[in-house]
């Protein structure tokens, strides 16, 4: 798909720039012609010599270079590409692009281009989560650019969180999608639930669980990157909103169900949230007080609506593919199989969340996909990779309809 395609790779400043050297190789292996632009920051992390040697092309760095401008003007540089890729995309370069600044070669090319642009953010997690960066990313997405990543995990700065540049092969796949026009879920609507729910006891206290929302958020992002129009109904979490997704923040199970119902119709529903099974009957209007008797108050619980079951059993506007998650600590597949039947969903993704697996809150997951046709055991993968594989599986399902 990339054979003969011309890719202009802009490498901006960030430790992830070392992965861009591998990206050049991966793109060239697939027959692409890769021309590179290094920003001043990018050149602090990788040398023009390595970039030139791997790309087998001249490297462009300077907006006001008489030599470069006479041989290859900056407008031509951007117009002669089929696709512009920014990897890593630094917070600074994204801010410049969002503001329409053109004060160096990379930002000028990006303003002058009439070609699709893919950007792979990479930075410290606080920089990524900063409202200014999030605002800039939304602006770039609204301007029609495509984002890939960032992923979660250990960052070079020693912190853990969102900010890792997507892996070279993931970026290659995104290039193939953009250039091949392969958006197999374009025109499909998806609802994804993610995170825990909070069930109020009184105005200051609540019942909750340890779900981080990482898996659900990653699934929402993966479906969007295949072209689906995604509504992510998210319980309280500390994650950045995935790119290109409409997020509805809720707290309780009842609010989650209402937000899902308000997002119908949909072709796909993926219920990855860890919904609280019970809520407190008769939430107190005022903060509950100790009454001096030494007796704790009796908290009566009532069952919450089952969102997965409700969506699976809708009449008329049932999503044509409903996927549930079964987090189990024993007899993982057996329990998930009966859960699939009981809830009436089409697929069940079963995972072992027993003590010691580190799945709850962790970055990896080992899952089994249970469908009417049988059981697939997937290898242990990063949650992002599970999300990408599930999204691909969903796309294949609709492709074979
Ligand atoms: O019954 P259990 O909670 O183990 O089922 C897990 C699946 O059901 C998950 O997909 C979860 O999102 C969904 N679920 C739901 N509403 C509930 C409880 C679970 O959507 N009230």
Task: Please give the share of residues in helix.
Answer: 25-40%
Largest sheet: 8 strands, mixed
Structural class: alpha/beta
Strand segment count:
22
* Total individual domains: 2
Shape: elongated
Bound ligands, each once: cytidine-5'-monophosphate
Radius of gyration: 24 Å
The CATH topology name of the largest domain reads: Rossmann fold
How far the N terminus sits from the C terminus, by CA atoms, comes to 24 Å
Q: Going by CATH, what is the homologous superfamily of the largest domain? A: CoaB-like
State the CATH architecture of the largest domain.
Answer: 3-Layer(aba) Sandwich
Task: Give the integer mean of the pLDDT values.
Answer: 92
Share of β-strand residues: 15-25%
Q: Outline the low-pLDDT stretches.
A: none
Instruction: Trace the largest sheet across and list its strands.
Output: 13-12-9-14-17-18-20-21
Please give a structural write-up:
This protein has 401 residues and is an alpha/beta fold. The protein folds into 2 domains: 6-179, Flavin prenyltransferase-like (Rossmann fold, 3-Layer(aba) Sandwich); 189-285 and 295-399, 3-Layer(aba) Sandwich (Rossmann fold), CATH 3.40.50.10300. It is built from 15 helices and 22 strands. The protein has helices at 17-29, 42-45, 48-55, 66-71, 74-79, 91-99, 105-112, 125-129, 131-142, 168-180, 214-225, 253-262, 307-312, 332-343, 383-399, and strands at 6-11, 33-38, 59-60, 83-89, 117-121, 146-147, 151-154, 160-164, 189-194, 199-200, 206-207, 229-234, 246-249, 268-271, 278-280, 301-303, 321-328, 347-352, 364-365, 367-371, 374-377, 381-382. Strands 13-12-9-14-17-18-20-21 form an 8-stranded mixed β-sheet, with helices on both faces. It has a 6-stranded parallel β-sheet with strand order 3-2-1-4-5-6, with helices on both faces. It is elongated, with a radius of gyration of 24 Å. The two termini are 24 Å apart. The structure holds cytidine-5'-monophosphate (C5P). The site of cytidine-5'-monophosphate has 14 residues, from helix 13 and strand 17.
């Amino acid at each position: 798909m990339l054979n003969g395609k011309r890719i202009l790779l802009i490498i901006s400043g960030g430790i992830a720039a070392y992965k861009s050297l591998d990206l050049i190789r991966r793109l060239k292996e697939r027959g692409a012609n890769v021309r590179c632009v290094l920003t001043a920051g990018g050149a602090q992390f990788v040398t023009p010599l390595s970039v030139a040697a791997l790309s087998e092309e001249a490297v462009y760095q300077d907006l006001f270079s008489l030599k470069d401008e006479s041989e290859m003007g900056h407008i031509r540089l951007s117009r002669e590409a089929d696709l512009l890729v920014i990897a890593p995309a630094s917070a600074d370069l994204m801010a410049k692009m969002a503001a329409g600044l053109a004060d160096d070669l990379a930002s000028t090319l990006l303003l002058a281009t009439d070609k699709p642009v893919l950007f792979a953010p990479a930075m410290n997690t606080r920089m990524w989560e900063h409202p200014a960066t999030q605002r800039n990313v939304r602006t770039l997405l609204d301007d029609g650019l495509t984002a890939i990543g960032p992923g979660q995990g250990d960052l070079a700065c020693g912190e853990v969180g969102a900010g890792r540049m997507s892996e070279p092969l993931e970026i290659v796949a995104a290039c193939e999608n953009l250039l091949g026009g392969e958006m197999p879920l374009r025109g499909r609507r998806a609802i994804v639930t993610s995170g825990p729910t909070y069930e109020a006891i009184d105005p200051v206290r609540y019942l909750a669980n340890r779900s981080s929302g990482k898996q659900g958020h990653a699934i929402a992002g993966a479906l969007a990157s295949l072209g689906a129009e995604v509504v992510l109904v998210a319980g309280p979490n500390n994650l950045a909103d995935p790119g290109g997704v409409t997020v509805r923040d809720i707290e309780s199970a009842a609010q989650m169900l209402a937000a899902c119902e308000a997002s119908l119709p949909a072709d796909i529903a993926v219920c990855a949230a860890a919904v609280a099974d019970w809520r407190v009957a008769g939430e107190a209007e005022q903060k509950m007080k100790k009454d001096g008797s030494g007796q704790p108050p009796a908290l009566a619980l009532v069952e919450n609506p089952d969102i997965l079951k409700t969506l699976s059993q809708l009449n008329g506007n049932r999503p044509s593919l409903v996927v549930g998650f079964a987090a189990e600590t024993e007899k993982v597949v057996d329990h998930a199989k009966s859960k699939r039947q009981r809830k009436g969903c089409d697929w069940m993704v079963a995972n072992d969340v027993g003590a010691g697996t580190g799945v709850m809150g962790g970055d990896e997951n080992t899952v089994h996909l249970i469908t009417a046709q049988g059981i697939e055991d997937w290898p242990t993968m990063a949650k992002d990779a599970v999300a990408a594989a599930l999204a691909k599986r969903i796309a294949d399902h609709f492709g074979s309809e």
